Amino acid sequence: MTIALDRPVPDRPVPDPMREDPSGALATTAAAERVSWSKPAKWLWVAATDTDYLGMVDRNLDGFCATGFDGFDLGVFAARSDAQAAVSRYWSERG
Q1: CA dihedral angle for residue 53, residue 59, residue 63, residue 64, rounded to 10 degrees
Q2: pTM
Q3: Which residues does the chain have with pLDDT short of 70?
Q4: How does DSSP assign 12-70, residue by residue?
């Protein structure tokens, strides 16, 4: 399974997905890179664009562990979506 997302627009706050987005931070531009999440193994999700490796999320007994493109440990999250958001955010800010 592959899930495609757009790269966050820089210089705008990342909105809370539970609220409406008055800032337009979720709007995409023509220059936005597409982020794809693939699932190469059970309990492993890998994020990439056409040109970059973004990071990964793996499931263990503690929760969903997020790792950045440079191997930096981004933390353990209760929800997979939160871990995936951390990977995308880290790449957007540092990549």
Answers
A1: 20
A2: 0.65
A3: 1-32, 95
A4: SPPPPTTS--TT-TT---TTPPEEEEEEEETTEEEEE-SS-EEEEEEEETTEEEEEETT
